[in-house]
Amino acid sequence: RTTERLAAPAAGRLPAALLAALGECVAATAAGIDGEAAARLERWGLQWQAIARILAHAAQLRRESVDLGLALLQTQAEWSAEAAHAGVDVHGPACSVAVDTNPAALKQLLDLLLEHALQQGHTVRIDVAAAAGDPYARVVVMMDSAPATSAPARDTLAWQLLVVLARALSLAPERRAVPGGERIELALPRSAT
Q1: Cα dist. 193→27, 64, 66, 100, 190 in Å?
Q2: For 77-81, what is the mean pLDDT?
Q3: Which of 163, 131, 176 is nearest to 51 (CA)?
Q4: Is there a contact between 146 and 123 (Cβ–Cβ < 8 Å)?
């Protein structure tokens, strides 16, 4: 069983592997442009712009109380067509808790988590773990996939962007290969209210 804990990156620098992956995705999409590919390219462009804005202002982002379960359900609904197209069953959270975060940053984190998950498994379970007295709530994403591995091929573009964004927000996603798949946890500070 492997666990990846992520250290803080050098300020303002993106890993070369991420930049290469971005270029490959854009090139592959642009090479066969049609209606669906054009829409995907537009979605990536908008996503990258939003992430770039968050990265540029991470230290100044206003934080507020956000219902994590509701945010997960909204993300699940927004990705339902993509999940259906990929043949992936997505199961949403059974509970909720308020977390102290920036709503725009949380949306991007959850989008990237789900995008990565849809590329890894046939069944995705998203939940909230919040133990009494723990100052953090955790987004827990379980993906079934065979074989379970932590090989670099599992480092999807969505995962790489998630890592960069999380680091900029002083968060540390944990990813483990588990029997039958992969488990990701992202801890967020609980709201005081």
Answers
A1: 46, 10, 10, 9, 9
A2: 92
A3: 163
A4: no
E strand or H helix that includes residue 64: strand 64-67
Mean pLDDT of the chain: 80
Q: Is the pTM of this model over 0.85?
A: no
Say what the pLDDT of residue 11 is: 38
Q: Rounded to whole angstroms, how far apart are CA atoms 157 and 15?
A: 12
Q: Which two tokens stand for residue 60?
A: 């100044």
Sheet holding 3-4, edge to edge: 3-4, 174-178, 181-189, 136-144, 123-129, 89-91
| pLDDT > 70? residue 174 | yes
Helix (H, G, I), strand (E, B) or coil at 69: helix
Extract the tokens encoding 98: 């308020």
One-character DSSP codes across 127-147? EEE--TT-SEEEEEEEEE-SS
Whether residue 153 is predicted with pLDDT greater than 90 in this model: the reply is no
- Which residue type, as a one-letter code, is found at position 132? A
